[in-house]
Design a protein that fits this description.
single chain, alpha/beta, Arc Repressor Mutant, subunit A, Rossmann fold, 3 domains, five-stranded mixed sheet, five-stranded parallel sheet, 42% helix, elongated
């Protein structure tokens, strides 16, 4: 994976490039270079001194993720306002403690906002950095897709469609019957982009309000060493992946204000910026498809979104991510033509052929320490088609092997891939044809 300029020079390269040097946020050396108001910096420094002090000016710089020069400038301003005092010197670095006047002011500030984390970046800096790191600037080649999907059994045409969709950097609709592997494929395609790295801020400031962005559950920090003099308010991470399913609500798409801490947490699409947002089981959320589609018609088209602060003010943020909708419902029944037009890539995931079914069975059985008899798998295929009137879905081998292993556990023996065990598993897994159901349906 490379960015577009590098891809032009070496289009067939199989190497992954890190964020380009021009995209690295460099450390500010003065308060005027930080990008947010001086009073916000001073208030944050005072709250940290109250909560974590006394400490040295160097400790203050580490808490705030700012350079020593900026921390020293803030210390001098607080000292001039009699909010802190020097308690000693070590290697020409002052040790400082909060004064009674500073303690009173800090308590006032904490009643307004308890945020005392890394210094936020400005919304302007955040928007600029996100657009530089857009997934639309990533070029994916066949080796990247093949490497990510090598643990799955897929035909070359499906891989080609996935690679093409990834290069769009916009949105993908994965649709088809349940059990065909849509969720697994969605999560796997996100790994292709996750091989690349981007910069994510700890927090963003807008109109004096703090929005927490970096989430350790979503953003996986890079193992690479940070470049020297990098702005510590940013964390180098793999491109993020956010997965939501039936729990998705309309409230999760807007800023989350904590009434106790008095600061915001970014919504799911803000955490997914520069990465992948997967809407699994689309159409089965607590909000209706129409609500979600109406909410995202503009973001999908114009690559911007609008969030609402507690006072009603609208804030514009970038919408720079690959959105993957996975559903087993007919897309035509979920969305109108205008919305479907904005989803550039639509990939149908269906049943597999006999050879693919056998290879999946073979892999799953080997993972569980069993062999896999080809003739026996042919009998399973025949039973699925003729007795149970089902297509060959990729989930069946895994589910049947699970049945074999569970039965072996019950009987306190080692699982074996023999005719008796396999056919008992098949009979347990599928519904028999009855007059009541007038056909056969698989248990999902």
């Amino acid at each position: 994976m490379t960015n577009q300029t590098a891809a032009a020079a070496a289009p067939q390269s199989d190497d992954l490039s890190l964020t380009q040097a021009a995209d690295v946020p460099w450390q500010p050396r003065a308060v005027s270079e930080v990008g947010i108001r001086q009073t916000i910096l001073e208030d944050l420094a005072l709250k940290m001194l109250y909560l974590f002090g006394p400490f040295s000016v160097r400790d203050l710089s580490q808490h705030m993720r700012l350079s020593l020069e900026v921390a020293d400038e803030l210390f001098r301003r607080m000292r001039a306002g009699q909010l802190c005092e020097v308690t000693g010197m070590q290697a020409n670095i002052a040790s400082i403690a909060i004064t009674s006047q500073g303690r009173g002011r800090a308590l006032e500030l904490l009643s307004l906002s308890q945020y005392a984390g890394a210094t936020p970046v400005s919304m302007e800096s955040y928007a600029e950095q996100v657009r530089r790191q857009s997934v639309r600037n990533v070029v994916v080649h066949a080796p990247h897709v093949e490497r990510a999907f090598r643990h799955l059994v897929l035909d070359s045409e499906t891989l080609r469609r996935i690679g093409t969709a990834l290069n769009s950097g916009t949105s993908i609709f994965l649709y088809g019957p349940s059990g065909t592997g849509k969720t697994t494929m969605a999560e796997t395609l996100s790994r292709v982009l996750a091989e690349d790295e981007v910069w994510v801020p700890h927090a963003v400031e807008v109109d004096g309000q703090i929005i927490s962005v970096h989430d350790p559950l979503v953003h996986k920090d890079s193992s690479q060493p940070q470049p020297p003099n990098v702005d510590q308010r940013w964390v180098r991470c793999h491109r993020p992946t956010v997965v939501v399913g039936g729990e998705l609500t309309i409230e999760m798409l807007d800023l989350q204000f904590n009434a106790l801490s008095k600061f915001y947490t970014g919504p799911i699409q803000m955490k997914a910026n520069n990465g992948v947002l997967i809407i699994d089981d689309f159409g089965r959320q607590r909000l209706t498809p129409e609500e979600l589609l109406n909410r995202w018609v503009v973001p999908l088209d114009r690559r911007i979104d609008f969030l609402t602060l507690a006072g009603g003010k609208k804030v514009e943020i970038p919408f720079e991510m690959l959105v993957v909708f996975a559903t087993n419902i007919d897309p035509a029944k979920l969305a109108d033509a205008a919305f479907l037009r904005r989803i550039q890539s639509k990939i149908q995931i269906g049943a597999v052929d006999d050879d693919q079914f056998f290879r999946i069975f073979q892999r799953v059985a080997e993972e569980r320490g069993m062999g896999c008899d080809a003739d026996l798998v042919k009998d399973v295929i025949a039973a699925i088609r003729t007795k149970y009137h089902e297509q060959l879905r990729p989930c069946y081998p895994r589910d049947i092997v699970n049945q074999i292993c569970w039965a072996a556990q019950y009987e306190d023996r080692k699982p074996h891939f023999d005719r008796d065990a396999v056919m008992r598993a098949v009979e347990t897994y599928f519904l028999e044809d009855t007059e009541e159901n007038h056909g056969v349906k698989r248990i999902n």
